[in-house]
Amino acid sequence: MIPRIKSLSDRDDYKLEVLFDDGKKVLYDVMDDIKTLESFKDLVNIHGLWKQYSLDKSRTCVFWNDFIDLASDSIYEYGNPLA
């Protein structure tokens, strides 16, 4: 089953705090993706883009534009658990 995102908030250090429907809460460091994926570099290079994220209708993907998105299962698996 694909984890669905219940709530989402950003931090200024390119990290996302994500709460899933099953109660798991994680801190996902997007800077790791920015360093390795060319399209993600725009999150740093284009002023204000970082704050323009959205959650898709199925609540399984965070996206900024047509080129930058994160699947909820990746966030769920690789995010650092929060209490």
Q: Any chance you could write out the topology, listing elements then pairs?
A:
Elements (H helix, E strand, L loop, with lengths): L4 E7 L3 E6 L4 E5 L1 H6 L5 H4 L8 E2 L5 E3 L5 E3 H7 L1 E2 L2
Antiparallel strand pairs: 1-2, 2-3, 3-7, 4-5, 5-6
The biggest beta sheet reads: 4 strands, antiparallel
Chain-averaged pLDDT? 97
Structural class: alpha+beta
Helix content: 10-25%
Which CATH class? Alpha Beta
How would you describe this protein?
InterPro entries: DUF2442, NE0471-like_N. This is DUF2442 domain-containing protein. The protein has 3 helices and 7 strands; from the N terminus they run E-E-E-H-H-E-E-E-H-E. With 83 residues, the chain is an alpha+beta fold. The protein has one domain: 2-Layer Sandwich (NE0471 N-terminal domain-like). A 4-stranded antiparallel sheet has the order 1-2-3-7. The model has no long low-confidence stretch (mean pLDDT 97).
Using brief descriptors, characterize the structure shown.
NE0471 N-terminal domain-like; globular; 83 residues; single chain; three-stranded antiparallel sheet; DUF2442; NE0471-like_N; alpha+beta; DUF2442 domain-containing protein
Task: Kindly summarize this structure in a few lines.
This protein has one domain (5-81): NE0471 N-terminal domain-like, CATH 3.30.2020.
